[in-house]
Amino acid sequence: MSDEHRADVTGYAGNAVVRTPVLDRLAADGTVFTNAYTPAPICVPARQSMMAGQFPRTTGCERYGEDLAPGHMTFARRLAQYGYATVACGKLHHTGPDQMQGWTARVGGDVTVDARHLPDRVVKPTNPIGHKWPIVKEVQRAGAGRGPSAVADEYTVVGAIDYLTRHFVDPFYDRAIPEQPLLLKVSLNEPHYPFLAEDPQRFAYYLPRVPTYAGQQPFDHPFLGGGLRVVAGTDASEREIRRATAAYYAMVESMDARLGRVIDALHHVGQDLDEWIVIYTADHGEMLGEHGVFEKQKFFEGSVRVPLLVRWPAGLGGGRTVRQNVSLCDLFATLCELTGVPAPSGLDSRSLVPLLRGDAHGWDDEAVSQYNGKNLMIKRGALKYQHYGPGLPEVLFDLDMDPGETRNVIDDPQHKDAVELFRRRRRELAFGG
After folding, report:
1. Structural domains of the chain sorted by starting position, each given as residue range(s) with its CATH number in brackets
2. Which among 18, 63, 109, 258 has the fewest CB atoms less than 10 Å away?
3. Are strands 196-197 and 143-144 parallel, antiparallel or unpaired?
4. Do residues 157 and 262 lie in contact, with contact meaning Cβ atoms separated by under 8 Å?
5. What distance in Å separates the CA atoms of residue 74 and residue 51, rounded to the nearest whole number?
6. 321: three-class secondary structure by DSSP
7. Where is the Sulfatase N-terminal domain (predicted)?
8. Could you read off the pLDDT of 351-385 as tens digits, one per residue?
9. What is the 3-state secondary structure (H, E, C) of 19-31?
């Protein structure tokens, strides 16, 4: 798993500039989901929803800084109940008192208890979220350099490789436990900003090649506010935007190479990758200047659509492309079915196994994303409906006709029936009147 990876910045998705050979090889004989969506276009709710197999409203984690209740059922906890070693390497982004949430071992990564979860008798530190500088500064300072994401990710990969060595061979003490099934999560920070490319040669390669959205006319809507706008020529120069984009591409390539090292380690300890279920995804995307916006928190494709591929040649075959709408929430039920573990009740998760086997019959072609307790996206087919609360206009994009998301067709007569169905579904999800 990575953080903030746009679905269209991968070689296998047709991007001719970025170099992602590891992901491309996995995709070649795996199944690629071209319409996979995050349940929330921001880190913490997205990750908790994926782990819980539930929408943010179901989990009670709808905003940045909120966390699952201690002991909440996650797919890591469920597989651990059925004998798996569940090992998380790297970023989890829990902020509450339960820092494991079902993982039986944890290597590296962030371990942070939010001040709101501390007992009253403890002196509470200042909330660091309030000290975050604006995204304009991130764009202006982009370039070559070893940022905190690269430092953390190197620690994650070294820890993952060390764990694999101990689990499968343990050459020092002969205490290997290869007979115990393993769920291994390798969770990297890149390509999350700051936009700093660890390898200056990669940065130099991408600088003259990357596309930018500097000349695009953005879609105008009140939800485009929130301090994430970067106006080309006013907030940042075209060159600064290009540098941020080049650094982002270089970080994607760096992330791809680190995942390759983990796969090489599996071979090194005697594992046949074809017998592994390998899943790659990200928690959300990155606007990267599209519509004049950086970061995420939006229901545009660049922010809300995520890369998702599943590879298991020995059990599923491969070489498929799935175009139905799916959600990261669906990974819980999918993992349960693939491993033969009974899925618990109360999930919003649907098993992707029929789609992985090439059977789309009866699939409910819907993806739901929520943010900040009041913002809702529902996608069915190529239609993407968005609701932002009382007083703000609804939005409907037809991605078949308008892939750049520039025209609101909410009042188009040909979509009248679809809009009524979206509104009915919105009320079922308890959003607005």
Report:
1. 21-366 (3.40.720.10), 374-433 (no CATH)
2. 63
3. parallel
4. yes
5. 5
6. strand
7. 1-341
8. 999 999 999 999 999 999 999 888 999 999 999 99
9. CCHHHHHHHHCCE
Cα 142 to chain centroid, rounded: 22
Q: Please tell me the distance from the alpha carbon of residue 365 to that of residue 391, in angstroms, as a whole number.
A: 29
**b/e map of 17-56 (b: 16 or more CB within 10 Å)?**
ebbbebbbbbbeebbbbbbbbbbbbbbbbbbbbbbbbbbb
Chain CA centroid to CA 160, Å: 20
Contact criterion met (CB below 8 Å) for 429 and 371: no
Structure tokens at 143: 């370039």
Buried b / exposed e over 376-399, threshold 16 CB at 10 Å, is: bbbbbeebbbbbbeeeeebbbbbb
What is the structure's pLDDT at 246? 98
C-alpha 336: how far from its chain's center? 20
Contact, 347 vs 53, CB < 8 A? yes
Q: What CA–CA distance (Å, rounded) separates 278 from 27?
A: 10
**CA triple 348-350-356, angle to 5 deg:** 155
* Whether this model's pTM surpasses 0.85: yes
Q: In the predicted model, is pLDDT for residue 163 greater than 60?
A: yes
Yes or no: say if 356 and 320 are a contact pair by the CB < 8 Å rule.
yes
